[in-house]
Fold this sequence. Notes:
Two copies of one chain form a homodimer. The first copy, chain A, has helices at 4-12, 16-22, 30-38, 66-72, 108-120, 138-144, 158-164, 201-204, 226-239; strands spanning 24-28, 43-48, 61-63, 81-86, 99-102, 125-129, 152-156, 169-178, 189-192, 209-212. Chain A is α/β, with parallel strands linked by helices. Chain A folds into two domains: 4-86, CATH 3.30.1330.30; 99-239, 3-Layer(aba) Sandwich (Alpha/beta knot). A six-stranded parallel beta sheet of chain A has the order 7-6-5-9-8-10. In chain A, helix 1 (4-12) runs parallel beside helix 4, helix 5 runs parallel beside helix 6 (138-144) and helix 5 (108-120) runs parallel beside helix 9.
Amino acid sequence: xxxxxxxxxxxxxxxxxxxxxxxxxxxxxxxxxxxxxxxxxxxxxxxxxxxxxxxxxxxxxxxxxxxxxxxxxxxxxxxxxxxxxxxxxxxxxxxxxxxxxxxxxxxxxxxxxxxxxxxxxxxxxxxxxxxxxxxxxxxxxxxxxxxxxxxxxxxxxxxxxxxxxxxxxxxxxxxxxxxxxxxxxxxxxxxxxxxxxxxxxxxxxxxxxxxxxxxxxxxxxxxxxxxxxxxxxxxxxxxx
Amino acid sequence: xxxxxxxxxxxxxxxxxxxxxxxxxxxxxxxxxxxxxxxxxxxxxxxxxxxxxxxxxxxxxxxxxxxxxxxxxxxxxxxxxxxxxxxxxxxxxxxxxxxxxxxxxxxxxxxxxxxxxxxxxxxxxxxxxxxxxxxxxxxxxxxxxxxxxxxxxxxxxxxxxxxxxxxxxxxxxxxxxxxxxxxxxxxxxxxxxxxxxxxxxxxxxxxxxxxxxxxxxxxxxxxxxxxxxxxxxxxxxxxx
Lengths: 240, 240
């Protein structure tokens, strides 16, 4: 049996404010919940509509009715499992590899994709401006899969962070030099900007080198989406 | 004044069947409508809630009330403009450049991103299996921006298409050779597969060379999303 206070808590976790207050977040779907369990994230409570979803039912696993799940889900069609997890502890940003910095990335799908890409390419540290969408937003988590457990995601004043670093700072710009011909160091910082406005003026002042992905001459596409641009730039960093 | 038959037609265009029957499709939002107009796609009818959205009101532009727009929109919060366009004429697939082939890409956002990427990298021809999501699906168009007007998107029996081609056929696989060290020709075919299952067995039999994006050793991300994989592979093709 699921109590009203439990349902109320999950509904609260839709909001960033309560996620931070409680140090908890939730994801939906058997596959995503299982991925977070496999990645050793600590479950606070797991809810399931069918007992055969899990091979072993722990003390903090609760069967929930489909209509209760619908009340707390953020999906139009909830799919049977919802897991509440403890936020993992953050570690200090270590400067022994490339660090990705996000300047106000707002779209949850984009942040989720960038987290998954960082994980794929073995980037350990993602530093986000405070205006960047919350990485524990359920829509972000839907796109990251288990990657969130393997990445150190920090929210901070990135101006201060960039002022303090001794690493070379690269930024993605429409009018930068071609990334294909730019020499990239073994360790550095890559900044990606907001979906509509790119990297802000204040942050731009702290960029040592502007890089760009060359466009085919005849085309007129305005820009690449920030997540696909990240894919290409991280691939270039790792390829060499 | 907007007639009931007009509203009914737009609602029908939510379905692929009627889009193909009428040779029409629709997009929403001032920016996207303007992009299609700028890309010289022929408008059938344009609907707007505020007359000052357009500098010139043509005969086939109609003012619509917000509540009427809500009835025909597929967005939760319609944003003032909806444009119905004629589908552009398709041209024959010309084999003077790389051709991208999609084997059952199902997610509208992924197809939209791939279309935008092809446009960015100057790929003219996208050949889709019949099970691939319709490129005139409104959610696809939301992600393509104006790119749909500059690309030749064909739906066909890709097995037959691949059997008939004389171009070298490359396919994206998890266990392929590193794309970074694979020699890529000036002209070829790149196949990308389904989100969950990758490239199907039948299609795999027609692939001459399997390529992959190398993953950082220590990581365990299952796979890259097909749209981000496309970004990296097309970048590799164009970089050389």
